[in-house]
Amino acid sequence: MSFNIGLSGLRAASSDLNVTGNNIANAGTAGFKQSRAEFADVYAASVLGSGKNAQGSGVLLSNVSQLFNQGNINYTQNALDLAINGNGFFQTSNNGEVSYTRAGYFGTDRDGFMVNNFGYKLQGYPVDDNGNLQNGVISDLRIETASQAPRATTALNQTFNLNSTNTVPATWQGAYDTSIAGAVDPLNPTAAEIAAAEAVANASFDPADPTTYNSSTSTNVYDTQGNAHVLTQYFVKTGANQWQMNVLIDGRNPADPTSTVPYAMEVGFTASGELDTASLVSSPSFTVDANGRFTLNDWVPAASDGGTPPVWSGNGADANAAGILVDLRSSTQFSSSFAVNSVSQDGYTTGQLAGLEIDDTGVIFARYTNGQSKVQGQVILANFANVQGLTPVGKTAWVQSFSSGEPVVGTPRSGTLGALQSGALEDSNVELSDQLVNLIVAQRNYQANAKTIETESAITQTIINLR
């Protein structure tokens, strides 16, 4: 019996050495979780059980468990390296074979799919054609590396303040007065004569002469080929709370590149300084809707031939088919200097992929050279009721088993799942000093069990030598 006891001790000590050696070997393996050899004593038992004074029969290896405590977060220079700070595993797929890992070595393959260093595809929520996340639909995550197609401007939102203390430009007033002087009764002109005089005064506007207008502002708009064009608005005060807004694109009439006559619209304000949307009236140039927004119609994107003088003509691209919807409803006329408080438009030129960012919830953002950004997907994490029940399959990966239970899948930072850290890796959780001490203890145990066998051998030899 003592031989078997000693042999069981040797086997147990050898297993302990193997487990400890494997921990030491993987001290530098990202995402590795150290193992622990767990032993139990053995007692022989009959049908009726063992006696209260039964002698032990040795030791057995009852389990090799893994310790899933957090490893240190080590920052790298790769934006696609990912570390989990907290609970959860990355879910990967190898031609449909699902496995789970804490090692966040990720990059892209030639098709743009996010893969780990073994080519397994990272799983997550994809996006649809409009860039909306498809929550609940798990698939291979893919980074779109192609150039971003241009987008024609469809909407322009502005908020500005026109200075209520401004006076009517002398050029405009002079042209108006001259025209009124020719009325049948200059002191009591008819509505038609007033309208004609205002038209004459408006025609005195010259974008090259700042004295013919009070304020101006410019912003870029884009055609269907991603070409940028400068839309400039010139504001001319025509009376109390009344303004004329003249619009040129690239210094040309929006609908006729050969002309410099601007689109024009009357813009009025209330006594409190708010935009009077009722003053906006539809014309061939602008179509006003019931909400007080107006659409700039019939824009023909143009380009110059670069000559002297330049000749302008259509550049072959189109504007947005429905025109550009302009919203000025938050603009004001107060007693302060002219200022543009906000301006935004939704067009952009072609963009090349400039970089990727992944936030702590796993959302993947792509940044492009045209200043745009786009959601590319969201990384998911999986957790288990019994992580000790996972089956290790090598390559720092585990697979689901009956003991582990079903995976609970969600986004980082949801529920009990941990947060993601982009540009970082989770180090192995092996503590080398502890493992070296375990190595000494296992070696001592092996030597002691070998001594047990040696002693039993000596006793047996003594019995054999009896005569």
Structure overview:
- It is a single chain.
- A hairpin with a 5-residue loop joins strand 12 (215-222) and strand 13 (228-239).
- The protein is 17% helix and 35% strand.
- The chain has 3 domains: 2-69 and 429-464, no CATH class; 76-147 and 353-423, no CATH class; 155-169 and 213-345, Flagellar hook protein FlgE (Tick-borne Encephalitis virus Glycoprotein, domain 1), CATH 2.60.98.
- The model has no long low-confidence stretch (mean pLDDT 92).
- By secondary structure, it is an alpha+beta fold.
Which helices and strands appear, and what pairs or packs with what?
Elements: H1 2-25, E1 35-43, E2 56-66, E3 73-75, E4 82-85, E5 89-94, E6 97-101, E7 106-108, E8 114-116, E9 121-125, E10 139-140, E11 155-163, H2 170-181, H3 191-202, E12 215-222, E13 228-239, E14 242-249, E15 263-269, E16 275-276, E17 286-288, E18 294-296, E19 302-304, E20 312-314, E21 324-327, E22 332-334, E23 339-345, E24 353-358, E25 363-368, E26 373-379, E27 381-383, E28 391-394, E29 397-399, E30 408-410, E31 419-422, E32 424-426, H4 432-464
Parallel strand pairs: 11-21, 11-22
Antiparallel strand pairs: 1-2, 3-32, 4-31, 5-6, 5-9, 5-27, 6-29, 7-8, 9-10, 9-26, 11-23, 12-13, 13-14, 14-15, 15-16, 17-18, 18-21, 19-20, 24-25, 25-26, 27-30, 28-29
Helix pairs in contact: 1-4, 2-3
